[in-house]
Design brief:
By secondary structure, the protein is α+β, with helices and mostly antiparallel strands. It is 45% helix and 15% strand.
Length: 545
């Protein structure tokens, strides 16, 4: 009988690793890479045999019934028969998790046993099998073999053997690694007080150097800070490739994802071009006279400068990803404080990547949704239980086209950033869609609820838009002051906010001169400092400094 699943959370601690310990850990990661690649190749081979088998093809042709409670008895029986046929086909070719464990047992009787224990080997086999299984289901692409120095983590099956946590150290086959524990950290203290299921060793590269960490997979719920307690009520969300709008009964906001994230695309592109020039110079036999790659030849020679540039590029990507993850966490906590039921449209973030590749690569809206789901799920059994994320289809709601007051449905182009109806309802498009999402029930818009809530929500939406405009203007002022410019201010908000062609009230802007008459949002003291800085910059330019 399988064990009952319990909730888990991760506590991460840095390891104090000596040069000798680092050498042994790198050797074990290399051994783990070879075991993983062998299990991955065997899993792909068995998947190919499975797809060629007659039993598998016969199971594919069987009727696919539903197994939900409301399904008819015959449909449930058909679904069970089909699942049983697939299980028999998998067993015939050995495409099961424990069949891969039996295959991986051979690695415990060779030189690899000096670096890896049997539990770690079985976990590597499970990791490879699940990657191939997801590929077989069509949920992921074909998994790739890991090259040299690409295996960055290994984990055990339990805390009883193999990689074990023995506070305050990690023990693994004679290797004893001490941890660096932060004092007076409630998050770390909560994790150390919980029961440890198993431990995972992770290697990261920071500025070209290896840093090792231990991740303790603990039983229970993660620590929740008092300031991030879950709110109550429904929260409507409207997500774009780079923006988010959230509306609840007590508040609303409109902002750009990771607004504080510094764009480094230009710097990244320059490094990529420099690395490409170095690669071509170091491998001239891999390119023809026109600079095209020659089929069958791979550039393998790397100079010391090329390796240095690649390390610099990797560090740039790592820092940007870490900053983006931190900003996403702050936004998720802000949304969680607004309510406990979060409603948003079910979107295809892969389609976002195809249409808005640069913006999605910079802001990562799909990552935000996954983090919101995970944190909301972690609140289910806590003191503030009841968190839920509801995704509804766009075809049944059509929030961006519908007016809640008169029920008119009218298509809008993406460039039309304001909702204006003949009945008198006017609002910014993203905020209005988030408000309507809050009123969705059973995958349909509840117009009666929207009408009842609109009188109070109208002021919230206008206040949220005003705050977004003020933040954008203040950010633009700081940027111009840092560059020493005195040109008239323009809106620093994204074009999707609709502030460039609309006033905050929703009426059209008659003249571009109105932009300079925007209400000042910088405090008087900051205005005085800004004036002194602009005056000093003008004097410096006059003197030619």
């Amino acid at each position: 009988m399988p064990k009952a699943k319990t909730d888990s959370f991760i506590t991460e601690l840095p390891l104090a690793v000596s040069p000798a310990d680092e050498k042994r850990l790198l050797a074990r990661l290399e051994a783990a890479r070879q075991v993983y690649n062998a299990c991955l190749g065997e899993s792909l081979k068995r998947l190919g045999l499975l797809r060629q088998s007659k039993a598998y093809r016969a199971a594919q042709k069987m009727p696919c019934g539903r197994t939900s409670k409301g399904a008819a008895q015959k449909q449930r029986e058909a679904a069970k028969a089909r699942a049983h046929a697939f299980r028999k086909a998998n067993a015939a070719v050995g495409f099961r998790e424990y069949d891969l464990h039996a295959y991986a047992k051979q690695f415990n009787h060779c030189w690899l046993s000096q670096h890896l224990d049997i539990n770690t080997i079985q976990k590597l086999a499970t990791r490879a099998f699940k990657a191939v299984q997801q590929h077989g289901f069509g949920k992921r692409g074909r998994p790739r073999f890991k090259g040299k120095n690409q295996m960055d983590s290994v984990e055990g099956k339990s805390n009883a053997s193999g990689i074990r946590w023995r506070e305050p150290c990690v023990e693994w086959l004679g290797l004893k690694l001490e941890t660096i524990v932060a004092q007076d950290d409630p998050v770390i203290a909560h994790g150390l007080a919980a029961s440890v299921k198993y431990a995972r060793i992770v290697r990261r590269k920071l500025k070209g150097r290896n840093r090792f960490y231990v991740q303790l997979v603990c039983e229970g719920k993660p620590y929740q800070k008092p300031k991030n307690q879950l709110g109550e009520g429904d929260v409507g969300l409207d997500l774009g490739p780079s923006t988010i709008a959230a509306v609840a009964e007590q508040g609303a906001f409109l902002e750009r994802f990771c607004d504080e994230l510094i764009p480094r695309q230009r710097e990244i592109r320059r490094l990529q071009r420099q690395i490409d020039r170095q690669r071509r110079a170091n491998n001239p036999d891999c390119y023809d006279e026109k600079g095209r790659t020659i089929k069958g030849k791979r550039p393998t020679n790397k100079s010391a400068r090329q390796q240095k540039m690649e390390t610099k590029l990797s560090e740039l990507h790592r820092r940007q990803a870490a900053h983006r993850k931190s900003l996403h966490g702050q936004t998720v906590n802000r949304v969680l404080r607004m309510g406990n039921v979060f409603k948003l449209e079910k979107l295809s973030y892969l389609a976002f990547q195809r249409q808005y590749g640069r913006s999605v690569g910079m802001r990562a809206p799909g990552m935000f949704v996954e983090l919101l789901k995970r944190k909301a799920e972690a609140c289910l059994a806590g003191p503030s239980a009841g968190a839920e994320v509801i995704e509804f289809p766009t075809r049944t709601t059509r929030l961006s086209q519908t007016c809640h007051n008169c029920g008119t449905v009218k298509k809008k182009s993406l460039s039309q950033r304001w909702h204006k109806c003949d009945c008198g309802v006017e609002a910014q498009r993203d905020l209005y869609s988030a408000f309507l999402a809050m009123c969705v029930e059973d995958r349909r818009l509840n117009a009666d609820r929207a009408k009842a809530a609109w009188s109070g929500a109208d002021a919230l939406l206008q206040a949220a838009l005003s705050q977004a405009a003020q933040r954008a203007t203040a950010r633009q002022r700081r940027a111009q002051a840092a560059r020493g410019r005195t040109t008239p201010l323009v809106s620093g908000a994204p074009s999707s906010f609709g502030l460039s062609g609309q006033r905050q009230s929703g009426s059209p802007v008659k003249s571009s001169a109105n932009a300079s008459k925007t209400q000042d949002v910088v405090p008087p003291v900051a205005q005085q400092q800004l004036g002194e800085l602009e005056g000093a910059c003008r004097i410096a330019r006059t003197l030619g400094l």
